[in-house]
Write a structure and sequence with these properties.
The chain is α/β, with parallel strands linked by helices. Helix content is 46%, strand content 20%. The N and C termini lie far apart (79 Å).
Amino acid sequence: MEPRLGIYIHIPFCASKCGYCDFYSCAGAADRMADYQHALLEHIEESAGRIAPAYIDTVYFGGGTPSFYGAARLIEVLDAVKATGRLLKRAEVTVEVNPDSVRLHDLRALHKAGFNRLSIGMQSANNDILKMIGRRHSFHQVEMAVKNARTAGFDNVSLDLIYGLPGQTMDSWKTTVEHALSLIPQHLSCYGLKVEEGTPLARRVEAGEVLPDDDMQADLYLWTVGRLDRAGYPQYEISNFAKPGYESRHNLKYWQLDDYMGFGPGAHSCIGRTRYSYVRDLDRYIAGVLHGEDMIDEYETIGDFERAAEYLMLGMRTVHGVSRAEYARLYRSDFSGIAQQLETFVRSGWAVADGERWHFTPAGFLISNVLIGKLLEAQTERKAEHNPWMKPQIERQPRAKLPPSEAEAFRNTYLNNPILTGKDRDSSK
């Protein structure tokens, strides 16, 4: 079978910047759209030779706000991808849209042109919260966007939600999830809010804005996993849930180390063992394509050890998890140290051993950054056993510290609580 390739196309335009957003985008800047379109089409055409060895089975238009860019331009770009002659008929073609910038006639045109999956930025069902974070739509507009999507022929619709927002409570989050479920999407992405440096939200937090704390975020997340599973949307990645068969095929490429090629400022690509990205600068990207100026931000060749580390990091983001056999195919080294660490996670309730595979539980996903850090330490230590010169350097590195398991946390609470243990009564005797 010939290799498969995913295409990512970044549309860096939006009507206005949301308070929490750290993605590269240009608010307004409609006067630059024509120049960008020219560069984007040129870049895709000149890349046809690099695309040729593979068939394209996913295309993803992200942003920014692709719907703000306009259906006619999006269709023209998809036509340029088709012109490479490598786009499969059953390819998944996704476009991100915001409820305030997409209309029924746009959706009909997009569907007719070959777009077959919509990702709608709902974020919340609470209009006050939407306004607070800088969203331009209401929940009613979300309802209309989904209704229009169905009318236009889309049978694969995803909704994006965010938990941990300012002013959000467990009750208001539950209401958001229930409203989302009432729209019967095929897919839901539920992201925990991250306060990114330099954003308006970060400045508000520095000025005293109060957000749900870590414990509340954990409660929101764990409730969400259980509720969506009961509703028929099993979790397949840390933040993603889908009806069976509707998992995002494009995003799975990132997590399964498949090849993808990006176009646009800030877009990333990974082809075989080569990874590169373009500058997060609209003008420099346009000049790079049209005038041959430098537009590469990062470029590297990935070795076996680094590829195996990526396998651990990305594989453990999904419920598919990792296996000894797959690891060995990437990096011919002993997996036993990693397996021992995974078994420790199983005993602590953070992971599950499913046949030859391991994956995190919802509780493990909550602290996945720490747990993955321990797996990478185990991988590095195994490498050091075969390269003794590395040992002193590794020993000087700070070690990731595991939090207590739920059982340990309970024991610690019990032993340190005089009301539970009766220590006060004992000391009075």
